[in-house]
## 1
Amino acid sequence: MDQLMTTLRAQWDRMLAVLLLTAGAVLLVVGWIAVSGASNVADQLSYLASSGLGGLFCLGLGASLLVSSNLQDEWRKLDDLTGAVREATWSTPHPNQIDRTIDIEDHEVIYP
């Protein structure tokens, strides 16, 4: 139970996205069944407006949340890589600070 709560806190956006996608699919199926059973056009339009538009809204919002959570993960990975590159860059000396003189048998050779 504790593991479930930790996962829900950490992945709330994905859980909400899955919930919205499921609700949208259910609303679309219920609307389709209701429209197919109604013989009057006015009844069909009311089912289409309520279930159909609500289902499409839930599907769109769920897909947006899912994409947003995936992009957030990618940005986090990119920030980690940027920090690692900065750390590696700052730990190596600048090329102008490297001693380029080498003593070879009493002769001093300077490399450019």
## 2
Amino acid sequence: MEIENKSKSKGNPAWCKGVSGNPGGRPKVVADVQALARIHTKDAIKTLVAMMLEAENEGTRVAAARELLDRGYGKSSQSIQHTGDVGSPLEFLVRISPSDIP
């Protein structure tokens, strides 16, 4: 079976305009875990700094430095190269064989 998607519309076609895809909002449990984790923010940063400066393993020092930079400045962006016409939408061709369907 072969499916082609050459749609130029943005977004998920299954979603209706103006209707939330998450009407219940973020689950309360996630918010509770975040609140508990944030209590330890200063200690966690101090631990990362100590690891960055004192760890014997270079990989550990680099990982700690990366975590500190990501939290302080955000993760660095990744570029994606598009080799099609400038301004044109990307076209996808999806091929599904019968063995792919459960």
## 3
Amino acid sequence: MGKFLAFVGGWLLEMVWPLIKKALVSLGLTLVTLSGIEIGIDQLKSALTSSTNSLPADILQLFLLAGGGICLNIIFAAINFRIAIWSTTRSTKLSWPKSSKS
């Protein structure tokens, strides 16, 4: 019974390991891409915040009353979402081989 379980366990690991390996590679590429782009987005956000805060007080108040801060947050959230989706789909295309059609 022990030899049978060892055989089945080895066979299952042999069949599933390439799938696990490719999934881990995809997650790693996504993590590296997102963390690098996140640094750039954070720098852009801080530059935009500092330039917005340097506006005269009356104009800054009108900007914030009109929803300018919320608008900027929505724009940055959309950029982050788009990059996350692009990175996820792109990394799976890089790590998964194309199926050969006969």
## 4
Amino acid sequence: MILFLTDGVLSSQTSLKSDTSIVLYGPDGYASVPLHMAQTGDKGTWKALAELSSIGMTLVLATVIGLAGGYYADRWLGTMPWLTLAGLILGIVAGFVNLFRSVKTAERESDDSR
């Protein structure tokens, strides 16, 4: 069944396809659907959630990358615990630097919106 929208009137036409596939379109193209339901300039909860989760993932990934880099450098040079600890500390510091940068950016955006 194919549904047509013409001048606000919905009409149907059967087709060779199964009845489970329904298509809604007008004579000149598909029915338009608003892409953004939120107002322009409004971040929305999903964007805020994405920013928060990216900060958390950055903290974890920076720590793991620093730890792995220090571990492999220790294996390569034979200085077992020291470069692993140095890499771990560098990874933690890099994660927190990114956290503070994200907080400063969020503060600037909230001040600009006022």
